[in-house]
Amino acid sequence: MTQEKLHWHLNGIAAWVGLFLLLAMIVFCIASLGSLIHSLTIGSLKDPAPLYLPFGMFLFSLWLLTGFTVIQPNEALVLVFVGSYSGTVKNNGLVLVNPFCSRKRITLRLQNLHSDILKVNDKRGNPIEIGAVIVWQVAEPAKAIFDVDNYLVFVKIQSEAAVRHLANMYSYDSDDDEHTLRSGIDEVSHALKEELNQRLSTAGISIIEARIAHLAYAPEIAAAMLKRQQAEAVISARRAIVSGAVSIVSDALKELTAAQVVSLDDERRAAMVSNLLVVLCSDTQAQPIVNAGTLY
User: Fold this and answer.
1) Has domain 111-217 been given CATH number 3.30.479.30?
2) 158: closest CA among 131, 112, 109, 196?
């Protein structure tokens, strides 16, 4: 595994001062060469040996000038010297590095990955469709360049593998109190982020956020699961209605007994309970019937 390290460089004011001095040296060498060549032309200088020093300085200055480069914001420069990793430079602006080193640029900006919609089985074996949105960035440029063949492809493939594994760990939906893909959004997102960080750390990739962007049953069972969800919703609503109706009837009987408005025996009490429950739990509006006689 490649270990990230800082490469020697000049940046900021030091780099600008070095650039101006180098340009001044180039101008001085050109002027000196011009003067010496002119002297040779008119015959005042017989020996061309004095040309060697300014010419050599001129070539050295041009070579040293190739060591200057500009690094944009949120960008890094990875340097390689004779096939060996030399270091990384992350400082922005004008920098001077070893001219012998070859350079590879890599962006450190946040990037979005919208995974394809995958068809997988959840924990219960139900076929579902799932997709995720992942926000990531390169944290260690050296690993991203040297430890994997193509870090962009690596991120895509490993993200799909992590989403598939996540779907196998949780159920789409459940009647129990367990966390599911549909109800436990925060826990599922945290689990996905942790697995992605573990998978992509070898490539120097850091996951900022990971969220489920698409979640649905597969088309072949979607209709059946919709009926199941509707039935569960109806049962839950009925349970709430019956529970509320029983509470209302109980309170009504207690208040009638406490106020001594009417004295009810067990049979009349049962009839009253039955009538109230029918009125409160009925799907349609109850039609009142006036009893002109007695209950017996």
Assistant:
1) yes
2) 196
